[in-house]
Design brief:
Layout (H helix, E strand, L loop, with lengths): L1 H16 L3 E3 L3 E7 L6 E8 L5 E6 L5 E5 L3 E2 L4 E8 L5 E11 L6 E9 L6 H4 L16 E10 L10 E6 L2 E7 L5 E7 L1 E8 L3 E2 L1 E7 L5 E8 L65 H4 L21 E8 L9 H13 L7 E7 L3 E9 L3 H9 L9 H14 L6 E8 L10 H8 L5 E7 L3 H13 L1 E7 L2 H16 L4
Parallel strand pairs: 2-9, 10-17, 18-19, 18-21, 21-22, 22-23
Antiparallel strand pairs: 1-3, 3-7, 4-6, 4-8, 5-7, 8-9, 10-13, 11-12, 11-14, 14-16, 15-17, 19-20
Helix pairs in contact: 4-5, 4-9, 6-7
Length: 495
């Protein structure tokens, strides 16, 4: 009995001395890794207790690099342990990394796995992660000072008053104008960042880059638009008026003239028949019918920011998102997030949004949620990560299932697949799923994110089968406009 009491006493003392540490995840699958894929993942450790806790040690392993933002964790605060793959050869990998914490006797095991398809062209650049020990004197310890410069692509001269929009996780973290030196200097969080620069008279340009305390200087080149062709004015033509000389027109002589029967009236010259004037018809204005009284304007005449319920029916939209590893390439994932988050600005309380994702398997990321909770939806969208294979067929099936669950009679019930290519794994029967559900009032559209030209024909055929449309998103402008236009067109004027 005394031993039991002693055990619980020691347990309570240990719990009091050391804070309870929680971690957001203990395993991560990178999926397929290509040359320019991100090769690191962040694990967030939070102290749930009332006193300071500690990360004692992260065990070193071959082919694994790591950094810790802080080994001490204050109450209700979090720190980051960044794990990075430094493997220099192709092939599958799986590692177990012990992390020793102050609130437990046994190490916490972190598992990471994946498959390297392409070796990075410069592994040194990939390991150039932020030094967590270097931090600004105030503010978020992950913030740092970033400099962005815009220059003329040909002359390399700096461009003042250029607009620079900075996005992270699909959210705009800054929208600024460059100064006289063509610079923008702002403090932003570290991480993968998307830049969109524009200036009057130049083509917009965009790029994605991982930025941190060391990699904190970005140069964006803008190409000048070709000068418009000169306007050539037509020579002035002077018109000279002359007095025509009266001439007597020759009288044609008919060949083989035939005698005509002419009726002569003495003292009266023959005249042409005159049509009697017709009485004016009264203009009758038709009485408007009940159908005409509520006629809505043409879609092109409605401002794009106007989603008036009088013109646009409620939306039940299920997004089926491709989060396979290929979405990490060419900034596709960020463009997809940007398009979705931009659309959320126009979602109304009567609209329903559901988000399904598919990588190696399909799952519901955001259960059916009304538009008055758009902040919750945006928060979940911004945290999407990509990895795994492409189970597009499973995603479409789950998308239709969720759409049926939230069906709105007389509304726009629409499934929108967003992907960078064709459906690979377990997708042989998606056509049957689409054909079975289209007559039930569902529309399926497909959005291609920087897709290959050869995949566009397949995606267009899938959209046509679902009575929807295909639209391509290749840059920031597309991401900010095309998905919104699609929803407007699909929900306009239905009753």
């Amino acid at each position: 009995m005394n031993r039991v009491i002693l055990f619980f006493t020691l347990f309570l003392i240990q719990t009091t001395l050391f804070g309870q540490i929680s971690v957001d995840k203990t395993q991560y699958d990178f999926g397929d890794i290509y040359a320019h894929s991100e090769r690191f993942v962040d694990f967030h450790f939070k102290n749930m207790g009332a006193v300071r806790a500690f990360i004692l040690r992260v065990e070193k392993q071959e082919n694994i690099a790591f950094q810790v933002s802080s080994y001490a964790i204050d109450p209700r605060q979090s720190v980051v342990v960044r794990i990075q793959i430094a493997q220099k050869k192709k092939g599958a990998f799986s590692y177990k990394i012990p992390v020793y914490l102050s609130d437990r006797n046994e190490p916490l095991i972190i598992k990471i796995s994946g498959n390297i398809k392409e070796v990075a062209p410069d592994l040194n650049s990939l390991t150039d992660c932020p030094n967590f020990n270097r931090r600004p004197s105030d503010g978020n310890p992950m913030d740092f000072m970033l400099t962005v410069v815009t220059v003329d692509k040909e002359t390399k001269q700096v461009l003042e008053k250029s607009r620079v929009e900075v996005l992270q996780q699909g959210l705009t973290v800054g929208d600024w104008k460059t100064d006289k030196e063509g610079k923008v200097q702002k403090k932003i969080p570290l991480g993968f960042t998307y830049f969109y620069a524009s200036k009057e008279g130049y083509k917009p340009n965009e790029m994605g880059a991982y930025v941190n305390f060391q990699r904190n200087y970005i140069v964006i080149e803008l190409e000048r638009l070709p000068a418009p062709p000169p306007v050539i004015e037509a020579p002035e033509v002077q018109i000279v008026q002359t007095t025509p000389t009266p001439t007597t027109p020759p009288v044609p002589v008919p060949t083989n003239p035939e005698p005509e029967e002419i009726e002569w009236v003495i003292g009266v010259e023959p005249t042409k028949p005159v049509t009697p004037p017709q009485p004016e018809r009264p203009v009758v204005t038709p009485t408007p019918s009940p159908e005409n009284q509520h006629e809505i304007p043409a879609l092109a005449d409605i401002p794009k920011e106007d989603f008036n319920p009088e013109y646009f029916v409620p939306n039940n939209i299920v997004f089926v998102l491709d989060v396979s590893s290929s979405m990490n390439n060419e900034n596709r994932l960020d463009l997809m997030k940007l398009a979705l988050i931009e659309l959320m600005k126009y979602v109304r309380p009567q609209d329903k949004i559901t988000v399904v994702s598919y990588g190696s398997n399909a799952q519901v990321l955001v259960p059916t949620t009304s538009g008055d909770k758009k902040d919750e939806i945006i928060d979940k969208l911004s945290k999407i990560k990509a990895g795994g294979m492409t189970a597009g067929g499973q995603g479409i099936k789950l998308g239709y299932k969720m759409a049926q669950f939230a069906y709105i009679p007389g509304g726009n019930n629409q499934i929108i697949v967003i992907t960078d290519g064709a459906f690979n794994k377990d997708s042989q029967d998606y056509e049957r799923t689409i054909k079975r559900n289209t007559p039930k009032g569902f529309v399926l559209s497909v959005v291609g994110i920087k897709n290959k030209p050869e995949d566009e024909a397949i995606m267009t055929a899938v959209a046509s089968m679902g009575q929807g449309r295909f639209l391509g998103i290749n840059n920031v402008f597309d991401a900010k406009t095309k998905l919104i236009d699609e929803i407007r067109q699909a929900s306009y004027g239905k009753r």
